[in-house]
Amino acid sequence: MLLGSFIALLAPGAPAASATPVGASLAAATVACTSTAHPVVAAALTRDIQAARRGRSSTVAVWVDDPGAGITCSLSGSAHFDSASIVKVTILGAVLRKALDQDRYLTGNEVTLLRAMITKSDNNAASTLWARLGHSYLQHFLNLAGMRQTVLGPGGYWGLTQVTAHDEMLLLRLLLKSNTVLSNNSRAYALGLMAQVISSQRWGVPAGAPRTVTVHVKNGWLPRATHGWRINSIGGFTWSKGWYSIVVLSMDNPTMSYGITTVETVARVIHRDLNPTVKSVVPPSTPSPSWGTPDELIPALPATP
């Protein structure tokens, strides 16, 4: 079922999710990168992420998490953006946690739906799982994950979930690091799906990554009447040296292609600064015929950002 089928579930007077105001305040935000062990790298990241934004109309939020090197970067980390399809990773996490709660394996139907939802960004699968879980359980998962800044989309509108770069970093950390919310088998299963995303949807934060890493990615792309295209990309990068993650959220993009270029320009300088000796990297994406086609259909709605 497509998102547009849920129009009756949203009352005209439904309140909008609480969100940080967009516009000049976010455009003027500065990058903050810190590292006790590698202050020179942190300084380079601060400078280069800021430079990558220069001249772009996109409003951007960024989070970089490299625990092995002790490096963290944030830009507008608590600002809210429409999730589009990156919320599908939250749905994935909630399904896996519910199976653990019930002390069972995933059903065959769940396996089919999860694979379609993550590897091909299938909306019908996402809508089915969202409805099965319900807002109450999804909120329970957010609470367990510590994702306190995330506001679930109203009714069946999972793509209007309000996310922040900070909370998406926490979600990726759940998948990349042992924890009490998801078992190691569950984490490996989720990462495996994110490593198998189809080629036409592997743009975004993978750009510039070392060829030797395994890329675990999920993207979202959604145009709306206000603030243009939402182009979001979250990814974890694993290899023998450990792991790191990158989150780039964006809006105010005039086209999908423009937003992807913004995201990839930011991602490439992050990978370069984190891996200065690496020569062979993932190149910028080649435009696909599918670019420009919304990942989901959301009609103009009252009282939503």
Structure report:
With 305 residues, the protein is α+β, with helices and mostly antiparallel strands. It is 36% helix and 17% strand. The protein contains eight helices and eight strands. It has helices at residues 24-27, 39-53, 87-101, 108-119, 123-145, 165-176, 184-194, 256-274, and strands at residues 32-34, 59-66, 71-75, 81-82, 162-163, 214-223, 229-239, 242-251. The chain has a six-stranded antiparallel beta sheet, with helices on both faces. Strands 4-5 form a two-stranded antiparallel ribbon. β6 and β7 (229-239) form a beta hairpin. The longest helix is centred in the middle third of the chain and has 23 residues, at 123-145. The two termini are 23 Å apart. The relative contact order is 0.19.
